[in-house]
Every structure is written in C-alpha cells, then in structure tokens.
Design brief:
Strand content: under 5%
Order of helices and strands: H
Oligomer: single chain
Number of strands: 0
Shape: rod-shaped
Length: 81
C-alpha cells in the first residue's frame, strides 16, 4: 500500500513539474511578445505625434505668413497715400 501511494505521489509530482516547465516557457514567450507589441505601439505613437507636430507647424507658418502679408499691405497702403 505504501509503495502504491508513493508511486502515485511521484507521478503527480512528475506531471506537475512538466506542466510548470511548460508554463514558465509560455510565460517567457508571452512576455517577449508583449514587449515586442509595446515597442511597435510606441513607434506608431511617435509617428502619429510627429505628423501632428508637422501639421501644426505648417499651419502656424502659413498663418504667420498671411499676417505678415496683411501687415505689408497695410504699410504699403499708408506709404502710398
């Protein structure tokens, strides 16, 4: 009886150890995939931020150019009269 009980316990421990190893491997793999996904997401966010900055800069430059042109017209009008 003791021998059968010992074999059952040994079998349970062996199966548990095998499952634990698979679990650790899959966890490590999942962690690597998560890091890769986070890196890609960061890259996409940086790309979108860069585009937004470029658009805002272009808008600001064009607005400033328009204001400068209006100011130049006013000066020209005052000096012509």
């Amino acid at each position: 009886m003791k021998r059968i009980f010992g074999l059952i316990v040994a079998g349970i421990l062996a199966v548990g150890g095998a499952l634990a190893q698979d679990g650790a491997k899959s966890e490590a793999k999942k962690a690597g995939e998560d890091v890769k996904a986070a890196g890609k997401a960061t890259g996409r966010a940086a790309k979108h931020s860069g585009k937004a900055v470029a658009k805002g800069t272009k808008k600001g430059v064009n607005k400033a150019a328009g204001a400068t042109e209006n100011g130049a017209k006013k000066v020209k009008k005052k000096t012509s009269s």
